[in-house]
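In the previous chapter we treated chains in isolation. Here, by contrast, the input contains two separate entities that must be folded as one system, with a combined length of 551 residues.
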Amino acid sequence: MHPELTDNIARRNRTNGRFRYLVIAGSVITVVPIFLIVGNLAIKGYRQINLAFFTKPAPDTFQAMMAAASGEIIPGGIANGLTGSLLMVLLASFIAIPLGLMTGIFVYENGTRRYARFIRSLTEILQGVPSIILGIIAYLWVVKNITRGYSALAGSVSLAIMMLPLIIRSTEETMRMIPIAIREAAFALGTPYYKMIYKILIPVSFSGLATGVLLALSRILGETAPLMLTALGSPAVSFDVTRPVSAVPLLIWDFYNDPNMVSLVWSASLFLMFFVLSMNLLARSVASKHKYI
Amino acid sequence: MNNTPQSENVLEIRDLFIAYEPGRYAVKDVSAHVRRNSITAIMGPSGCGKSTLLRAMNRMHELYPNIETKGDILLDGQSIFSMSVIELRRKVGMVFQRPNPFPNMTIYENVVAGFSLNDIRLKKSQRDDIVENALRNVALWDEVKESLYRKGTFLSGGQQQRLCVARAIAFNPEVLLLDEPTSALDPIATSKIEDLLGELKKKYTLVLVTHNMSQAARISDDSMFMYLGELVESGHTNTLFTTPKDPRTEAYLTGKFG
């Protein structure tokens, strides 16, 4: 071998080694903050988490002050936020899942048509719209014109708009993975078009669709900004969609603004974090369990 | 099937032109016939229009947008273009190049998929009969009777392809179209499918697109040779292989191109 070539190899090996350490260091730097966050939340928040935390609404300032002064745990919990979040997420799913699935299927089926391409780019733009602006839109549409006041419905609409692009994208991308041969097999059996969609396309891509929906849900669960302009928050447990309701992230913001309730911030954050995390894990297990393509 | 006396020809193709784009014909002026209870092989080099011709026989070619079709195909004397697609595809089943059982369905569900996808409700006992019959007809019953409720995709490639044949014949069609059904299979699975086709022609009429000339020679009764969208020559397989009339057929059969 030419002597210069052997030199080259030694140098290459050194560069290789250095680069490896760089990559490892990078990954450590990324992972450490995640553990720090979870650890911090757990240490500061676990004390408040008991049965009452889930069943009682948020305390008022006075109760919290008394408890904080005597060093006890703060009474009350996040029940009003939990029910509000649940109500709005359900309602938002009700709006966004059918709409998103249908739009996604339409875009997939007509991928090359101008109108479908237009929808696809609109979806991409919608995904980039800051969530507070979606809150303002829902405020204009619903708070001003439909419920004539802050309401759970308005909150749901803003969340539904946030879910839409995520569901449309994941639907289109999942369906794209279905081999054409599967569609042809259905058509060759004389299957009508609509039946091919709901008996073949949707079941075959079920895991992908469910993953998309779950990820969209976990995304909106933590959304705060649009809710400030729409659902506003409420100290009591309420299931009336025309009235203001609270939500877990809204409560975190409320707790933060009250110096007596700081320890509840940690507990509520810990809970929200775990909830979103388990949603993601669920999405993962669904994705692997019903995987056909 | 009806009891009226049937002519020997199941399918009559008359002056058929098919264009994917205006003016660019994939099938040019093809006229031919397919005899009842026979295997007709369509041969030809890649891109000669043989798959398009096959797909036209149950109007699967219409899945492409902007397709243009002229001429006619008669099934038992009736134009397929005047039938409803759904009715036509029940009479003319299809098996594809790659095995494509529905991945969300069990073996059992796959066989009766043609019924469930068309909302034809059957009693459990009827369904059981159809499944057993169809699977016996494709010589798959003994291999899968213990695992009818497992997903069809868990079978081997050859078994999957036989499952797809079972799915297509569960409707008891008149004609079965096969688009290179063995090109994705190994030699053993291929020979099993070939044996199966020989059995199936007793009940059905088979039209087979194949790349494989020896396969056409082995199992077909009639052959068509297509080149650049035209039907160059058709007739009994023995005649076509031994004494081709057209120099292009001879050139293809002797491996000069293709």
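Chain A has two domains: 3-48, 81-289. Chain A touches chain B at residues 179, 181-182, 184-192, 195-196, 199-200, 203-204, 206, 292-293 (CB under 8 Å). Compare these points with the single-chain example from earlier in the chapter.
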